# Entry
Amino acid sequence: MSATESFVTEASYPADYTEPAVVALTDGEATPAKEVIEAPAGRRNGIKIPKQLPGAEAAPLKLPPLDRSQSTEDRRSVLRTVFPELQIPEDHNGDQNPQLPEVTLGELQSWALASSPVIRTAAAKVERARGVAVQAGLYPNPTVGYEGDSLGTARTMGYNGVTLTQEFVTAGKLSLAQSAAMMEMQAARQELVKARIALASDVRRGFFKVVIAQERARLNRALAQLAGEAYEAHIDLVAGGEVAPYEALQLRVFAQRVHNDILRADNDLQASWRQLAATLGVPDMAQHRIIGSIEQPIPEVNYDAALSFLLTRHSDLAAASSRVSGAGFELAYQEAVPIPNITVYGALQHDDTTPLNDIAANIQVSLPVPLFNKNEGNISAAYADVVKANQTWFQTRNELVATLAEAYNRYTTSRSIAASYRDGILKDQVNAYRGASDHFRAAGVASDFAEVVVAQQSLSAAISEYLQSLQDQWLATVDLAEVLQVDDFYAMESQVGSATYKADANAPAAEGPQPTAPFPAEQLEVPAVEN
# Structure
């Protein structure tokens, strides 16, 4: 009896088998199975599976006796009851489904801008600030009234007429107040820009999550196909009496786990699309097929150029600068408040005390005297606001630089890791699995089957890690684009270019800004984010 026949015969019976049995061999002799599977001296006959473990209720594996007179195909057909065929789940919602409508990143962002309540809220804040600025510059209304004097004098109607009172604002206080409010409107405008970029970034994140989910579902199906082929090949080896049946069982377990990964990936794809639809502001939108590839090159951005681009373009710095100017206008306004406004009062009255029917005119000019209240408290508070606004600009700059450093670190790290998987790890792991499988099939029992299992599991883990590295890479790139506030994601490399920045060139003066004119009205339109 050969070693292979003894090995297969032993593996064809459960470990706790004790009754004698006869196994037919090719030389016509009969050997009791108990003698074949008897454990060597000093070794336990088998392990007992605790009943508490899930799956312990499974019946021991029992195969029909090996009949060498049958063809390999016939024996394989008999074994099919023990090793059923595995079917890869159909792809109903993946990127290969032609029935799903297609959509690009640019189209998704256009839908988001048209539907998102976030943009409408930010736009409403701009309009509110605009209304406050308009109101701040309006001149006081005149006061018109009736006035009767000396009523009842000599039993007459006295003096009756109309009055007009008008306050005249001095020292350009209305212009200063409106300019301060205009700066707040400009800050609100920059907040709208930031809201649009943030929405575009959320859409980009959702877009790449869907793309990654589509790719994960596709690659899991490829893994399932590979695992199924290895499983079927081992069934052939079991049918030919070349390997133990538990090896095919181990591969079936692995294939079934990959099938579970397919189910998880399909559900993740649906969940990712629903999250993206919610971000668009249309949560009931039917699923579309995303047009995009995670394998395409990501934009290459130099850190120094990115820093220069950030410090010359970011809306947070622009908003902080507007608030610095606004604080300057407010300070100038508070300094002008002690300069009194002039109030003019005039009246035209009919003299009803005599039969002459004369018309009498009264006029009065008044103004407050800043004797006790020179607005010192408000001036001091306004100056403190100027200092605060200046320091807020520097704080905003420092926070943006720190955010850029963190985002750029993840961007460069994830790029390098993804490239290492794509260009080296995956190729080596595929060859390692191919070599382990070929070596096992060539060497038979002389080779360790565990090497095949480990190699297959390592390949699956490497592909999963590769997908995670791609997801990290694209999400880090989206985060970098959000920090830089680029309008076109795919054109980020050309937009950032080789921007240069002179340190603190845009920083406001430490002693407080000089009041400047409001921005022209044509600058109030917010540029749209493309993709």
